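Researcher: Here's a chain I'd like modeled. Treat it as a single chain, no partners, no ligands.
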Amino acid sequence: MAPEEFILLGDALWLDFVNSARGRTVPPADRFPDPAAWARWAALQHLDLGDSVPFGEVLELRTHLIGLAESLHHGRVASSAVIAALNRHLGLSAGHQQLTRVGGDWRIRFAASRPPAALEAIARSAAATLAEARVAVRRCGAESCSLFFTDDTPTGSRRWCDATACGRHGGIERRRGAHR
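Model: Modeled as a single isolated chain. Structure tokens:
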């Protein structure tokens, strides 16, 4: 596996999954050209492929989540098709509800009876982002970059997926424009 095969800068598992179809070039290369690449990415993320799902199902979920990232970036609500896809994968989780004590208060939570399969873990990550009002999904502000990331800064001012790779380049371009 090449060190640059996958870009893992989304700050959320599901955005790293989405970013496998995006990049810093125009047009971006698809990082999942085949099932073997998907398996390498899942291994890198320490995900359990367990009972392997058809590769078409992996790509279908990624397409739904790309739509979700675009919607959230533009401040729109998630489509019913995306929610249905997430719920379908979340529904595969085996476990039970249990009471736990959190900070002196009782909470009911789901306790999984096994580690989640890869697509379940990705769906949980997307659901957690949707459920967290303070977290925004943004697309990188660099001209040639199409990667998504989460912005949980207090001011919501994060602009780049990576300040070194994209932020510095953007600053150079802004200075060039100022000198013209």
